[in-house]
Amino acid sequence: MTPETLRRQFLAWQCRIRQIAMREDDGRPSEGMRPRILSAGGRTLSDGVVVLLVRADPAESTDFFEFQVRKHHDPNEVYRKGLTYLQSTHYHRADRFSDEMTALFLPESRLAALLERLGDCRLDFSQFSQSWRLPCAVRALAPDEPAHRNTLWHNRLFNTQLPDAVRILGFRPDWTAAAALRAEAG
Question: Which of 41, 79, 93, 181 is most buried as measured by Cβ atoms within 10 A of its Cβ?
Fold first, then answer.
């Protein structure tokens, strides 16, 4: 399988499990949205961190997320409006998403500091009968980057009290070293 085929299949899988989570589980992150994080040497650094998919051009969704958070004073209303948006067609076209995933951490997160220092890691995803091993370059996103803003406002749909001072990391897979695995039928 070519690296590009692997990338396309992974993004399609991620979009599908996110559609299911939004429509059937009120947006709660499923197992496949919370990969294990391992060091390049294979040591487990975290049993699961929620990662987001960000559109290659996230301006429209970022504006929507920010508008909802600023417009509604009731966190339940923000959540309902955001969930309705994410349940609609947001995840219908995998080709609209960047393959650099993001994750939000509080400023004092030791895991985020460690990942920044290391500069790389492996994300292990698993859900249903599918698993993925993705070696990734890790970087801190600057607050003015579109993916940073999108990640912050997306997370605020679910927690309106998030401070501005958060750490957002980007995880860019190395598709030449990535692997897709299927569980054996037993």
Answer: 79
